[in-house]
């Protein structure tokens, strides 16, 4: 079986918005698929210099650019494969509403491949949950650095935890679901479920359906759901969710009116007041310590 290279989680996140913008035209059969040719690897030759720091900086910059180019190539190659799966009819498209009809009327199985951080907030009733990426709970040197990087690169704002690929994903699916099962594969936004569809097809599953736009695109009446939150809110978190600054919450505020907005306005005011209190407290501590230092007598002057 041909081995596949999954794009990194960062590449999936960065590419997701652009992917959803043009997926409707790509899947309609128009020309313009990404070129399969691979750009040559970046090679930088620093000029002769007597400053070793400059040389190492150039090498670090070249390494970063090589890594970004590799991410772009992996994502472009994956996008081409996913387009081909849908264009050739190997994976069929369903809207969230069509998926709901198929589950209720045809007893098709919905395979939820979202991580546990999203699944515990909301899920489709009767769905089978097998995440392709899940929250990384390990605490070794390698995972700790990834957690810190994820937090610094926006995890604090979006609430997205550090995730890792489950290498047992296929074996878990095969254990629960025969290969002749009609599988509706879904995630929160649609990209990870496409990656799952590719792996499932290559493993021998032939009755695959992909929920376009993910569960986040579903309206309340499309699917029978369970959990403490609506499906649309399962993929948000962090400071942005607390302050109500996500697209999903803005849409909800537009529907529910001022009462919903006032809640998050009060939270924002609370955060500002707390920050002011901390700043004033820090100033007072600094002033007190400064006065104490000035009072210390200087001997031998």
From TrEMBL:
Residues 36-47 have a biased composition (Low complexity). Gene3D superfamilies: Rhodanese-like domain. Residues 30-50 are annotated as: Disordered. It comes from the Eukaryota. InterPro entries: Rhodanese-like_dom (IPR001763), Rhodanese-like_dom_sf (IPR036873), STR11-like (IPR044664). It holds the Pfam family Rhodanese. CDD domains: RHOD. Residues 104-227 form the Rhodanese domain. PANTHER family: RHODANESE-LIKE DOMAIN-CONTAINING PROTEIN 11, CHLOROPLASTIC. This is Rhodanese domain-containing protein. It comes from Acer negundo.
